[in-house]
Write a structure and sequence with these properties.
The protein is mostly helical and about 100 residues long. The chain is built from four helices and no strands. The protein has one domain. It starts with a helix and ends in a 9-residue tail after the last helix.
Length: about 100
Amino acid sequence: MTIDELLVEARKIWPTPMDLSEIIVALGVIYGDICRLERDFGPIPPGSEVWKELEKELGNIVFSTIRWMDDLDLRPGDCIASAQFAQRRFRGRIPFPEKEKE
């Protein structure tokens, strides 16, 4: 699905826009759920029921964030482009050791 299609689907579920304070609380709930999964079950085995729960929570972040950007009159494509630029710049400044593949 495209970002625009995801937004249409999100609006069917959540037609009323949220303000920034409501978005922060909702994002905190999702973040807390992910933290609890790691705390209680980490490392999480791929394919497990807990992995599926992690998949759902990360999907919640993506799906909800598209709607939240719209709630705040931001364009998702512009937000994503800004994030890509910032991540490339950050990655260039900070040396990260390469992880060995198992």
